Each structure stands twice: as C-alpha cells, then as structure tokens.
Amino acid sequence: MGFATPHGARRGTAHSSHESPPNLLGVPVSPSSFADLVFTGGPVFTVDPARSWATAVAVAGGRITAVGRERDIRDLIGPATEVVDLAGKLLLPGFQDAHVHPVLGGTTLRQCDLHELHTAEQFVAAVADYARRNPHAAWIRGGGWSMDAFPGGMPTKDLLDAVVPDRPVALPNRDGHGMWVNSKALEICGITRDTPDPFDGRIERDADGEPNGCLQEGAMALVAAHVPPPTAQELADGLLAGQAYLHSFGITAWQDAGVGAGLGPADVYAPYLDASRSGALTARVAGALWWDREAGMEQVELFRARREETAHGRFRTRTVKMMLDGVAENHTAALLDPYLDGCGCTTDNTGLTFIDPDKLKSYVTELDAAGFQVHFHALGDRAVRSALDAVEAARAANGPGGRHHLAHLQVVHPDDIQRFRQLGATANIQPLWAAHEPAMDELTIPFLGEERAGWQYPFGSLSRAGATIAAGSDWSVSSPNPLWGIHTAVNRVEPGLSAEEFAARKVFYPAERLDLGQAVAAYTAGTAYVNQIDDVTGSIQVGKYADLAVLDRDPFDGPAHEIGDTRVLRTFVEGVQVYGAE
Q1: Is the pLDDT of residue 5 over 60?
Q2: N or C: which terminal CB in the chain sees fewer CB atoms within 10 Å?
Q3: E strands within 206-249?
C-alpha cells in the first residue's frame, strides 16, 4: 500500500484537545455514550499512513469510535466498559490473509494430517498409524507431505504399499500440486503404463515406464474422481476448525483462493454460505470462485448467481480465481526460458501453461467488464507476464479498476516489476517461502540458475516500484501464522532460529527485504484492499470495524530475529473476542 515505517521507529501521538477526545483524522468525537471496549496503555500501531501510532482506542457498537491517548478517551469509560490494559503489548488491526484454503486445511486437520512432520519415515509412520486407527475408512485421505523429504522431491508407491497394501491411499502434498498414492489407488483408478499424461499434468514413472505413485498437477484428477468427497458435515466442521485456527493467529479476514471444485472433490461454497447465514462465520471472507480451465465464459452465469446470493453478510463472492501454472519444485511453473537439469544444462521444459494466453486476455477482459476481480495463481515469470498482459488488455478495454491481484510471484522478470504499479495490479505475496530451506536450495535454485534464482520473491523491488502489496499464507501449504510471514519478509530468514542460528544463516537475497511497517501493512491494509473491505477494515481508524489483534509484545521494539516468536493473545471481530490465549 506504499506504507512504510522503519524497523524500530518511534510512535507519534494523536492531536490533543481539552474539549472532546479526538480521533486520528482530527475529527472530535462526542462522548454522548460510553464505549463498550477500551484499550489503553498502548502501543497501538494503526496502519493509518496519516498517523501511525496511538496509545488508546475506544470501541462501541462493533466500531472504533476514538483513537488517541489515554486522557483523550478517559471520558468514554463507563461502568460497563471493558477496559483492556495493553501494558506495553502491541494492539494492531486484525491480520488478513490474501490467499488461503481454510476449509481444506481444517478438513485435513481431521484426516491423515502430515503437515507438522518432516521426514519420509515420519510420513510413512503417520500413514500406518492413521490406517490402524481407522480400520473402516475406505480411503486413506489427508495430506501435507513435503517434497524435500524425498529424493528428487518424489515419493513412491512402494513406501505406502508396505504399510497400507489393502486400501487406496491418496495424499496431496503440502503445496497441493502433487499427490502420493499407493498401488491400490492406481489399480482402482485404472492408471497404468499405458495411461497418457493429461495436458495439464504428469504421471511420474519408474525406469520401466510404470507409474511410480507420484502424480503432478492435473494428473491428480485421475485419482480425485474416485476419492469419496467430504460430506457436508465434514466440510462444515472443517470450516469451523479452520476458522478457529486462523483466529488464533489474529486473522479476522481472508480470501479463500478456491471456492469451487478445483482444489479437491468438494465445493466449499455451501459451507461458507450456511455459516454466514447462521452467524457461525465470525471472519470476513472473500470467496474466489474457481475458474474451470477446461471451460469458458459460460461459467460466468454461475459466478453472477453466487455473487448475487452473497451480496450481504460476511461471505462475499466477487472474485474469480485463475490458476495459470504449477510450481517450481516439480518444474511445472511456467518460465520464459527452460529449466536447467541437474548438471546445469538447458532442457526443453518451460513448465505448464493451464490457460492459453490469448484466451486469458479475453476472459479477464470480460470478467473485468462484468465487475469481477481476478485472482491469478502466477508463480513462474511466464505466468506472471501472461497475467499482467491480461490485466493490461482489460484496462485498455474497460478502463482502470478491478483490483486484480497476482499470487505467489516466485519468479518475476525484472522487466515486469514496474508494470504492477502501472497497471494497478496488486502483488499478493506469500513471504514465508522467501528463505533458504531444502525445497529452495535443493529442488529450485539449481534448476533455475543463478541469475533467475535472484528474481525470486522480489518484495523489495515491487515495493520500491510503488506496487500495492498484499500478503497471505496459502495454508495448508504452509503455516498461516502472519507473524512468521512478517518475520521472513523482514529478515529473509526463516523463523524459529536461535540468535546464533539466525546470525549464521545466509539471507535470501537481502535487497528484497521489507521493513517491519511495510510487512504488517501488507497483512492488514494491503489485504483489506484486495478483499475489497478497506473502507471498513485494515487499519485502526474511527468508523471502521473493531477487528483487532493484541500481541504478547511490541515487535517494533525488539530485535529482528525475535519477530517470529511473537504470539497473539486476543483476537476481536467487531469488538467481540473470537480468540483468547489460555
């Protein structure tokens, strides 16, 4: 959003008045009624570019009624007002996630969940344990394994066959772009050496040409069509589990990047709609309606109907999600120039393109004209360029607007950096990935080459070019903890390290770091902008909803390597607590 506060910067104070408590916009607020909730003893990081810091906030009727200093808000405290003494802990706007899959993540938490494990041995043992505890499960479902745990990023069917030989196993990996299956699953789905690769995916094979149990991208659909879909109750429970988990990280709003059947066997639209109508949905959710890449503009009729049906409430569907390519680790991200092989030689593989670039321009132009925001999965530099070209075509035809955004942005050609600001396209970043770790150092950098590897996750370059920046996690691909993402955006080193380990760790392209204020703004005001709720959320300003988070410390006053250690103590939506640490 162009907002920047240098790390460790001190706070300003609000304008003072002896007659009535002011807000940060300089408008007096009459204390005609007492506040329901007051925070005192700051600091308060408002993410308001006009006045960044305060020490007290008052809330009434779910909205912020005053922002300033304790003495300015004292008269709003009545006998029934809840007063929260921050005692030096930081209050800031509730975090927002610009790209996340809470229903999928919450459902996986209740299945064979591998996300917190790290080695091949741990994954196999967890599958065996889950199968033993669930003897009546027709399929072993779940997921969350990591590619870096296996040679070449590729697990094989024999590992699963050894522990579950009699039932099919289908486990998507952590990023959702690959699936690990056993022989029984291949047999049930009719996948043999004679099965051709789909146009948008790959069946990995052994030296003899037999499927080896790893399916990439569109090849996963060959199995997904046979996996029993989650029941309506499982999806409803998954949504509430995912929502509670996100609230525990101070997240009060998000954009679900797959409302439709594109990321699995079930459409999550109905669970969201039901929860919104019943009041069980306590977060604000922008639902990105899944674009079926094998269909065309005939989909828009359904999109319009869903947008109209969700015109009110906390769940809105004014966005269309388009997946343009895969991921770099399995060499399916779309690149302008070919991948290298293990010896550093050029191959003939430039990745996969899921939507023809010329058709993409037409689709985006028509969606833009129909009033839909487009949310692109664009990971490789060719996919990024295709998305920007499509936004450019839409602007040429329809004029500015749309708030379109490009997610992931792992490899961005330097020639395209300035185009984000010029076209009004938001950079939707997932900061936690911008660090040296095995998937990066072993499965990505060697196959991109030195120059292109340096184009990865160019947060600093985008910010300096004036791009609007939003941030998210892609959970369940990676942790939804915004403070871990903020830590990595600021340091370009992963969280969870000791001071000694942090000092010794190689920084991942340090010129692309953000400062702490910029990173927090990306997770608040920036994402509120792409979620199209920046008029009522994303900053602590009078009149906006009291969607707030209280941290256990003020990371602006601590060392940079401790940012990721910060925890959320309390989360509020419209002044109502939806999470409190025990």
Answers
A1: no
A2: C
A3: 211-217
